[in-house]
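Subject: design request, 106 residues
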């Protein structure tokens, strides 16, 4: 009888119908926000404000998400964001940055 020698965190997780539902939901929300809210905001604020905001916001969003995902994926432990940041920067910074990240999400 063979034993599975892979550590638990190296095993592949199945992609279930529940996961597929979440993917569809996220894509649907992104498409809905883009097709409904973006043209309204462009009409209210003007095209130049929209272009300027897009030039500033897209790279900023990409850099922040890139740092966030690299921090989580390259850590040794599989814990939450606050615990991983606390491991690197200390407990106080971990709590502070965890609260800031939470406020950015909402």
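Subject: RE: design request

Done. Sequence follows.
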């Amino acid at each position: 009888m063979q034993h599975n020698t892979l550590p638990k965190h190296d095993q592949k997780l199945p992609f279930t119908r529940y996961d597929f539902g979440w993917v569809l939901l996220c894509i649907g929300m992104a498409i809905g926000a883009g097709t409904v809210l973006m043209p309204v905001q462009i009409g209210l604020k003007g095209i130049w404000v929209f272009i300027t905001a897009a030039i500033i916001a897209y790279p900023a969003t990409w850099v922040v998400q890139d740092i966030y995902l690299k921090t989580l994926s390259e850590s040794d432990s599989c814990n939450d964001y606050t615990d991983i940041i606390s491991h690197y920067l200390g407990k106080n910074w971990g709590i502070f940055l965890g609260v800031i990240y939470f406020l950015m999400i909402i």
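The mean pLDDT is 79.
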